[in-house]
Amino acid sequence: xxxPFSPLLRPWLRRMSTVCFPLAEARxxxxxxxxxxxGFLQGLVTNDVERLKDGAMYAHMLNVQGRSLYxxxxxxxxxxxxxxxxxxxxxxVAAVDSIRQHLQLYNFRQRVxxxxxxxxxxxxxxxxxxELSVLPPSDPGCVPDPGCVPDPRCPEMGFRMVAPxxxxxxxxLPGTEPGNVCNYRRxxxxxxxxxxxxxxxxxxxxxxxxxxxxxxxISFSKGCYVGQExxxxxxxxxxxxxxxxxxxxxxxxxxxxEGLEITTMSGKSAGKFRAGVEDLGLALLRLAHVGEELQIxxxxxxxxxxxxxxxxxxxxxxxxT
Length: 321
Hints:
By secondary structure, this protein is an alpha+beta fold. The chain folds into 2 domains: about 10-200, Gyrase A, domain 2 (2-Layer Sandwich); about 240-310, Elongation Factor Tu (Ef-tu), domain 3 (Beta Barrel), CATH 2.40.30. It has 7 helices and 16 strands. The strands form 3 sheets. Strands 11-14-13-12-15-16 form a 6-stranded antiparallel β-barrel. A 5-stranded mixed beta sheet has the order 8-9-7-1-10, covered by helices on one side. A 5-stranded antiparallel beta sheet has the order 3-4-5-2-6, covered by helices on one side. The protein is globular and about 60 Å long.
């Protein structure tokens, strides 16, 4: 059975060159169901699950030291076999089993069931032409279909779609073009969007340095959750000196580039290269060095130039932490 599509989506597709990226090899789904689902997840993720209506919500799961373990997208997607308290949890496909074990560890006699959801797959629908604007998440017409919702992280990430596994979304949505995971990653890195355990190493990445606030992934007014104390304290100091930023390399990266130090031309440490594909990637940089000439030197080889930038979708000074 094909998933239903509202007429609200079709004008959006007609006026944009939209690419459909199948993410089954990169992103997995868990189904969390039961009458205690919202309260259970409320104590384990950074965002306020009780505010999630129909649509999607971004969040991190933290360890007790306040470092990110997993980045997730939560969906409340209506359907014939989905109960009123059921949620879908999207995560890195390599972390599905780890997240399931993590949730079960905290499931103390609560009526919550967590199981894999191979019958559904995730797609990203992203516009290709930069001169056309994506409908912002605040637009009421931005929820075009129960299975297709705005990506909550930033407008440049377009829509997220949850569809039955085996469906070919470009066939269902005439006028869209098929994409691949490599180009999807390039799009993410171009706009500075981290995703998965490679970009956000479990137990290493700090959520605020990973731009969790900018990506609408945290609530500072909800109740307690695992890892809250350090995150809240850092937020209220208002000082974030390092952030994940998009970088472009002067030549395609090698596999050995990940984790290497980025320096200024004078040799001063500026940060570390986190992950990338070809000549694009993410780096955890001191903001004071963004805009300077930077480089990576590995194994005695020739230095590789690094050009860092701040994403256009970031809020202006004083608008966010």
